[in-house]
């Protein structure tokens, strides 16, 4: 009898499995038919909805209760049919009733989530969420209608996958219920990320409403909110038995994902209670002192490998606290939390933005402290390469200004771009508007041309305030720092007005801090550029890299604590990208050129500081550590901007002519640049030397020499350029005999680039240059001989108190040059 009953049970199970499989195949056929042209062949959706409601869902429930192994197949086919119906209802057309129709039907699909295996439920909700993000109104409507069932499902996924094995946080009943499908258990990191994404989508549809999950599924919302608290407090919140702690500490990334959704899962008091533990732990992990009014930090709240992980949790917790509503009058802790975030030393833009929002709703925002102290503390962040960090610092400073009464917040935000600001706080509001727009966001960003015009007008208004002395010297450093940050904006139309603002800021002696900020940033940035240039040259030499090739020597991603699977790694990357995003600002060498243009925009300031600028110019042209010269397109572009600074700001270098060592070194570099391959570089060098009033280079001769450097006028100028007296008055020499060698040497330097090309349209230039050089005496062609034999021995530099000074040649090279030119006598011959 027992054997017969076992056989009968086995046959019944086989029949159930076969029936389930047949039902799944039938649903798949219907789904495939609905999917054709997004339901274009469907004449009426009511039979399809009835099939889902009266057949598919009851069958799924029966298979789930029976523990049928085919339940997953049936669930996936049911979900496929539901998604096909969703895709066909984006608009009212034909049989489709539009998003409202699918929302009414989706309200009955809760069993498709509650009775499906965890992996299938996750895939179904994730598919609806991705469709809603892509702009599908039907998917958004269906997701909203399913939220009462989706929230408990996600809470169940969190519970099942909390420990990473499917049984760490689940109850005994749940463990038995899903013991046959442990392989489909979803990682809690993936479930937490999905919860935040669903809340973000539905919140955008409801114009930023909060407590979405709390209204749809209060029990699930309470369980999710309890996950955000410290383990000891969470047990009390759910009655002691609903939440069990995991053996391992919860990763910070998971706490971050849950805190993002917390405002939708709890009321204001619940949010403030849950975030208190997170804020206390994060501040303690980042080395900040304890904040009065917060609970003691629980070291087991989360596991963070770096301070950035703690900063992400801190930002999410403060943002949730600010979104929950203003601080109750009975409390006074939010202002202290905001102050603690402002005192952090690291670069955490998301935390600063959240602290600014929290300060706006604090019960006593005036206790934040001095506005001037806050500006001094955050000045380095105002010029950061990260746009998000600049925006975070500016938002925080604007919030402090509003709280301390430095300006009327409403008036500052409503002011027009062309209105002249009257205080530093109003200027910071202007800079916030300039920086908070992502000009590279082609999807959700504004019209770039409109923004560029508004930004130009706004910066011009600040320059006008400086020129009209509406702003005092105390605002000089902060304005200059903000302008340095604006040079990181990759929008060329913003830069010219920024240069003019620097010119107005640095023109007067009273605004000396503005010049100091500009010069120090130029100095540090030039050092970084040269170091990167030298490192790239070493790397290219080591790999034998040709132009256009790239060797990636970076190692693979670091193994992170707790990031043992794909879901954890994806959530970790997302947390890092949203908390400290990477962005493409102004290219390194391009920004060096922008800084040099800012210096050149105020010749008065440059003329007051000739020695420091000359020192930077010499450092830029100094040889590399191995003795070779720097080269390359980017370096030459920087040299071009430097020559403009020397020409306009240092009177061509004449301002440092009398300085021992410095003046001679600057002149050597300028004379070397006369022989540059680029005509514009050579012309700039000639214009600089023309201001030195040298005996052999009068202003008229400097103009002649500039025409020699131009390939378009070189041949005509060489015909009229005579260094030896002729028979008539019109054929007189352009220089006196005693100054002829020096002038001829400069002309030879100008002609050296024309000698390097033998064919093509440059061949006539080479012929004209050689014809003119042939009329010179041997000592006058020393630059030509030097250019031929100088590669035999590299350029060296001498080190003195002012840094590295370039030196032309060595005794060996000098002797070789003079001997080859046939000039020097017995002394040079003996040296050779």
Structural commentary:
This protein is mainly α and 832 residues long. Helix 15 (307-323) packs parallel to helix 17, helix 18 runs antiparallel to helix 19 (387-404) and helix 19 (387-404) packs antiparallel against helix 21. Residues 4-8, 165-183, 234-247, 550-564, 794-809 and 825-832 have low confidence and may be disordered. 61% of the residues lie in helices and 2% in strands. The chain contains 39 helices and 4 strands. Strand 3 (796-800) and strand 4 form a beta hairpin. It starts with a helix and ends with a helix.
Radius of gyration: 37 Å
- Strand count, sense and closure of the main sheet? 2 strands, antiparallel
**Gross morphology:** elongated
End-to-end C-alpha gap: 119 Å
Q: Which strands sit side by side, in order, in the main sheet?
A: 1-2
Portion of residues in helices? 55-70%
Quote the average pLDDT: 83
Structural class determined from secondary elements = mainly alpha
Strand content: under 5%
Low-pLDDT stretches are 4-8, 165-183, 234-247, 550-564, 794-809, 825-832
């Amino acid at each position: 009898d027992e054997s017969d009953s076992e056989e009968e049970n086995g046959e019944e199970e086989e029949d159930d499995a076969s029936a389930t499989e047949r039902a799944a195949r039938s649903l798949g056929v219907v789904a495939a038919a609905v999917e054709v042209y997004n339901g274009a062949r469907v004449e009426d959706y009511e039979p399809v909805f009835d099939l889902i409601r009266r057949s598919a869902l009851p069958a799924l429930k029966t298979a789930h209760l029976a523990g049928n192994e085919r339940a997953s197949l049936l669930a996936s086919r049911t979900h496929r049919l539901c998604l096909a119906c969703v895709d066909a209802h984006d608009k009212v057309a034909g049989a489709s009733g539009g998003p409202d129709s699918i929302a009414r039907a989706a309200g009955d699909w809760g069993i498709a989530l509650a009775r499906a295996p965890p992996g299938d439920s996750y895939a179904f909700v994730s598919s609806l969420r991705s469709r809603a993000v892509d702009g599908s109104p039907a998917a958004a409507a269906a997701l909203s209608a399913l939220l009462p069932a989706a929230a408990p499902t996600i809470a169940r996924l969190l519970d099942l996958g909390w420990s990473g094995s499917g049984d760490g946080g689940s109850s005994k009943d749940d463990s038995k219920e899903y013991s046959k499908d442990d392989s489909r258990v979803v990682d809690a990191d993936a479930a937490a990320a999905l919860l935040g994404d669903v809340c973000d989508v539905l919140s955008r549809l409801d114009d930023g409403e909060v407590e979405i999950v709390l209204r749809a599924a209060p029990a699930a919302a309470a369980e999710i909110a309890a996950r955000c608290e410290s383990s000891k407090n969470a047990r009390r919140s759910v009655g002691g038995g609903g939440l069990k702690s995991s053996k391992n500490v919860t990763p910070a990334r998971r706490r971050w994902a849950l805190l993002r959704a917390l405002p939708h899962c709890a009321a204001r008091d619940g949010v403030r209670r849950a975030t208190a533990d997170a804020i206390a732990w994060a501040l303690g992990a980042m080395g900040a002192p304890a904040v009065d009014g917060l609970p003691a930090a629980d070291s087991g709240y989360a596991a963070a490998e770096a301070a950035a992980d703690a900063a992400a949790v801190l930002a999410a917790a403060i943002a949730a606290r600010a979104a929950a509503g203003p601080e109750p009058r009975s409390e006074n802790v939010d202002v202290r939390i905001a102050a603690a975030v402002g005192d952090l030393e690291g670069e955490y833009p998301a935390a600063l933005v959240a602290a600014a929002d929290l300060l706006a709703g604090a019960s006593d925002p005036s206790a934040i402290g001095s506005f001037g102290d806050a500006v001094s503390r955050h000045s380095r962040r105002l010029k950061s390469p990260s746009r998000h960090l600049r925006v975070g610092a500016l938002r925080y400073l604007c919030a402090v200004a509003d709280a301390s009464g430095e300006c009327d917040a409403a008036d500052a935000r409503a002011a027009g771009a062309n209105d002249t600001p009257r205080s530093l706080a109003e200027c910071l509001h202007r800079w916030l508007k300039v920086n908070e727009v992502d000009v590279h966001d082609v999807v959700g960003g504004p019209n770039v041309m409109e923004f560029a015009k508004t930004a130009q007008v706004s910066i011009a208004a600040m320059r006008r305030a400086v020129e009209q002395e509406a702003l005092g010297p105390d605002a000089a450093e902060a304005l200059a720092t903000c302008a340095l940050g604006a040079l990181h904006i990759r929008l060329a139309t913003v830069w010219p007005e920024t240069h003019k603002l620097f010119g107005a800021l640095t023109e007067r002696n009273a605004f000396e801090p503005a010049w100091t900020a500009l010069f120090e940033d130029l100095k540090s940035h030039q050092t970084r550029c040269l170091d990167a240039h030298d490192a790239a040259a070493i790397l290219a030499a080591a790999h034998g890299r040709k132009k256009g090739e790239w060797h990636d020597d970076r190692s693979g991603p670091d193994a992170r604590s707790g990031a043992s699977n794909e879901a954890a790694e994806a959530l970790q990357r997302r947390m890092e990208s949203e908390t400290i995003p990477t962005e493409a600002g102004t290219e390194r060498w391009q920004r060096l050129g922008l800084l040099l243009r800012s210096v050149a925009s105020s010749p008065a300031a440059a003329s007051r500081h000739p020695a420091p600028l000359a020192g930077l110019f010499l450092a830029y042209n100094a040889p590399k550590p191995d003795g070779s010269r720097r080269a390359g397109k980017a370096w030459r572009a920087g040299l071009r901007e430097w020559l403009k600074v020397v020409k306009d700001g240092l009177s061509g270098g004449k301002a440092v002519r009398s300085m021992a060592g410095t003046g001679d070194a600057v002149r050597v570099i300028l004379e070397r640049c006369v022989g540059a391959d680029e005509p514009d570089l050579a012309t700039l060098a000639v214009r600089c030397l023309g201001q030195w009033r040298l005996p052999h280079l009068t202003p008229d001769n400097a103009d002649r020499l500039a025409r020699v450097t131009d390939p378009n006028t070189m041949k005509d100028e060489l015909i009229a350029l005579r260094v030896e007296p002729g028979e008539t008055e019109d054929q007189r020499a352009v220089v006196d005999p005693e100054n002829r060698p020096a002038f001829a040497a400069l002309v030879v330097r100008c002609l050296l680039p024309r000698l390097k090309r033998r064919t093509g349209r440059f061949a006539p230039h080479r012929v004209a240059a050689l014809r003119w050089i042939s009329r010179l005496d041997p000592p006058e062609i020393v630059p030509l001989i030097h250019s031929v034999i100088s590669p035999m021995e590299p350029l060296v530099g001498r080190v003195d108190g002012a840094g590295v000074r370039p030196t032309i040649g060595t005794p060996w090279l000098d002797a070789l040059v003079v001997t080859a030119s046939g000039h020097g006598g017995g002394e040079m011959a003996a040296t050779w």
